[in-house]
């Protein structure tokens, strides 16, 4: 396993009166794609939001590249090279694709400030972004909105991407496009922590996997090993995921 870029040690998160995370231990190796799996309500989204500082850990420690970020504010975590793509995608519907991208490029005041080579690379991953460059983001299809959400996250180099269910509700052809894009990101040594329910998506992309249940990580290891072991899938997730393509 590669060295850890992100580590969670005994992380607890409370939201109001609710105790959601109960001592999460998680290691995300540098340059790899880690899948975060689990039943609905297991705490996966809360884990991403806690890492991003949108909710603060009430106990435990979160480190990024050896630096303690547990108490940092969201904007501080973002400026340290972390991008978050929520399940809701978080795009600005009234703005154009171009304007959404410019807002996400923190170091750019105008389009001329965005790295042209990187922008062309993104267009290669998601050709629809170039095609609909001047269209309102709210007019895009669901799959195109997801492409825009990921494109915004990678418009500048990031050391870590946090992505929540990128294939949810997408057509199979769009899912394959997304898989190809994430493979390119992996090839570029981008570190990714990805929540996903589509097991076929997960097994094609994941290097490592962590499975959550009731606010804890109950299994971690190789994605390939979990994909090959239907009895373990059933034990951890209550069904044979191999049958759910």
Automatic annotation (TrEMBL):
Pfam families: ABC_tran (PF00005). Coiled coil: none annotated. Keywords: Amino-acid transport, ATP-binding, Cell membrane, Membrane, Nucleotide-binding, Transport. CDD domains: ABC_TM1139_LivF_branched. SMART domains: AAA. InterPro entries: AAA+_ATPase, ABC_transporter-like_ATP-bd, ABC_transporter-like_CS, BCAA_Transport_ATP-bd_LivF, P-loop_NTPase. One of its GO terms (molecular function) is branched-chain amino acid transmembrane transporter activity. One of its GO terms (biological process) is L-amino acid transport. Residues 6-239 form the ABC transporter domain. Belongs to the ABC transporter superfamily. This is High-affinity branched-chain amino acid transport ATP-binding protein LivF.
């Amino acid at each position: 396993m590669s060295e850890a870029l992100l580590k969670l040690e005994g992380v607890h998160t409370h939201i109001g009166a609710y105790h959601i995370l109960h001592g999460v231990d998680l290691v995300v190796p540098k340059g790899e794609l880690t899948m975060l799996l689990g039943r609905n309500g297991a705490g996966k989204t809360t884990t991403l939001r806690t890492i991003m500082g949108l909710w603060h850990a009430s106990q435990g420690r979160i480190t990024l590249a050896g630096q303690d970020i547990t108490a940092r504010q969201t904007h501080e975590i973002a400026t340290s090279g972390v991008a978050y793509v929520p399940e809701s995608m978080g795009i600005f519907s009234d703005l154009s694709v171009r304007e959404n991208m410019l807002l996400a490029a923190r170091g750019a005041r105008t389009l001329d400030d965005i790295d042209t080579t990187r922008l062309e690379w993104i267009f290669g991953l998601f050709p629809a972004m170039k095609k609909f460059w001047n269209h309102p983001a709210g007019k895009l299809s669901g799959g195109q909105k997801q492409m825009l959400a990921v494109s915004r996250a990678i418009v500048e180099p990031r050391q870590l991407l946090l992505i929540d269910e990128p294939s949810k509700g997408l057509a199979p052809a769009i899912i394959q496009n997304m898989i190809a894009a994430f493979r390119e990101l992996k090839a570029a040594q981008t570190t990714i922590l990805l929540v996903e329910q589509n097991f076929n998506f997960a097994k094609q992309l994941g290097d490592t996997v962590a499975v959550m249940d009731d606010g804890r990580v109950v299994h971690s290891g190789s994605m390939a090993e979990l994909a090959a072991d239907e009895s373990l899938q059933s034990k951890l997730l209550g069904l044979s995921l191999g049958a759910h393509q």
